[in-house]
TrEMBL record:
Protein species of origin: Nonomuraea africana
Transmembrane region(s): 39-64, 85-103, 115-137
UniProt keyword annotations, A-Z: Membrane, Transmembrane, Transmembrane helix
Full protein name: Lipoprotein
């Protein structure tokens, strides 16, 4: 049950990060200022769900890691922990403040240089978090044996 919860929370986080980025890109491309303000409000409120899913993912992951991990499993666990620390830092120190600020600015109709500079920071932080959470998902699937490490090929291309 714990393993399934960990997977669900991790996938929810990945989907939310992706949805926030896609919604922002689409509304900026085809929406008016009112639509942008609506999306920014939804993202700021949705950040609560994202923070919860990240905390739950980290908590269940720590619980699943155990203390007796050895070899490749131990290395993957440590890499996943380090990635999660970076994801949490970016999320709490960059993405949440950006989301709230963009929400406020868009509600005021302030779509100037500051808005777009903050949005660029938000996109960069979101992209980094998307990659890191995706890598953690991949490594989690490797640890459970659902995917295997790719075999390295020699210089001649033979296996």
């Amino acid at each position: 049950m714990k393993r399934r919860a960990h997977a669900v929370f991790g996938v929810v986080a990945l989907v939310l990060i992706s949805a926030f980025m896609v919604a922002s890109l689409v509304v900026e491309a085809v929406g008016d200022e009112k639509a942008v303000a609506g999306v920014k409000a939804a993202i700021a409120l949705g950040a609560c769900a994202l923070v919860f899913s990240m905390i739950a993912t980290g908590g269940t992951g720590t619980s699943l890691a155990g203390k007796d991990a050895r070899g490749l499993r131990a290395r993957l666990i440590e890499v996943k922990r380090r990635r999660m620390a970076v994801v949490a830092g970016i999320g709490l120190l960059v993405l949440v403040p950006c989301a709230v600020t963009l929400w406020r600015l868009s509600a005021e109709g302030a779509f100037g240089t500051a808005f777009y500079a903050i949005q660029a920071v938000e996109f960069a932080g979101g992209a980094v978090n998307l990659v890191l959470v995706g890598l953690n998902l991949r490594d989690g699937l490797r640890m459970t044996g659902r995917i295997r490490r790719p075999q390295l090929q020699g210089i001649s291309g033979e296996r």
